[in-house]
Amino acid sequence: MPTYRQFPAAGCITRPIALHNDGFHLCSCTGATGLQTSATEFASWMRNFFYPLSGNSQTLDMLTTNGSLNNGTQLKYALGIGEGSYLGWKLYAHSGSDAAFRTTMFVYPEQNLGIAIFCNRSDMKPADKAIELSSLLLKPHPDYIPPASLPTIDSNNAEPACLSCYNNFIGKDYIADNGVQCSIIAKNGRIYWRSFGEDLLLKELRADSLVVVNRPQTTLVFQHATKKSGSLRIRKYTRGEERIFRPIQLTTPQSEDIRQYQGTYFSKELGIHCRIIWKGNIEMSIAGTWFHRFKFVGVDDVLSEDWPVEHIVFQRNKRGKITGFAIYNVSVQQILFSKIR
Q1: N or C: which end of the chain has fewer CB within 10 A?
Q2: What is the CATH number of domain 3-137?
Q3: Mean pLDDT for the chain overall
C-alpha cells in the first residue's frame, strides 16, 4: 500500500516497488497533477457537465472541443478533457496518476451518467475499472458498430529465424524525438523491447519487422545502416502513427565545455526558474527539486532517467553561446527555458 505525507497535499509517495518520489510538486509545472479532492466533491464537478453552476455553455464547449497544433494537426484531446466514444455513446474522459489518488473520470452527456474511479494504490488501473463499470451500466447505441478485433498473436515459436541478423540492434539503448527511451534485448533466443521498465516479447512477421505480442497494434521495423538510410534506427508504428528511435551514443565532454551550461534559466510558459551547476557532473534544480543523473549523447544533447527532464537539448546563438534549452518527454514537448544569467 502506498504511503503519503502532507507536503503539500500528497507531497510524496512510496510505491509498492519501493520507489520513493517527493517531486510531485513538479507535476503542475508540466500540466499533470494527482487528484487532491474527495469523491463527494468530485461528483459535484461531474454534475457541472449536466447542470452548469461554474461557467456556462461556452465554458463546457471550450473544455470538450478537441484542440489542434500550430501546424494544423487535430488532436484527440480537448482543454484537459479527452473526447471520444464508448459503445457508440459520446464520452468525456480524464485520468490522473502522478500523485494522491489514481483516478479516471468518464462522463456520458447523452446518458446523464458520470463515473469516477478513485484508487489509492499505484499499481491499480482505474481506466480499466471505469470501462468495466460502463459495460455494466450502458447498452450499446442502436447505431453502434463494434470495431474489428485485433488479431491475437501466438507467443509460441517467437524465436526469429535469424537472431544474429539483429545483433546490430540488440543490447543498445534508443531514444525517440519525444524523449522516450527504450532498449532491445535478447533472452533465450527471443527478442524483447524494453520500454518503461517492462520487457515486451517481439515476434517476427517478416525479416526486420517484429510485432509486440501482447500489443499487436504496435510493430517495430529495424532499419539497418546503409549509405541511403544513414545510421541504423527503429521505426515504431502504432495505429498508423510513426515514431523513430535512434541509438543512444554516449559522449564525454570536457569539464570546461560542461561549465558553459551553468547558470540560471527561466521558462515564461511555466513561470519557474531552473538552476544548473557543475560538481563533476551537471546538477539541475527545477522548482526546488534537484536532478543529478544526466548523460551526454552529443553536443548540447543530454538524457536523464528522471521525469520530467528525460531529454534536454541546449540552444545556442550564432556566436555559439548558450541561450537556453528545451525539455522533451512523453508528457510535454519543447518546454523552453531561456538563460538569464
Answers
A1: C
A2: 3.40.710.10
A3: 80
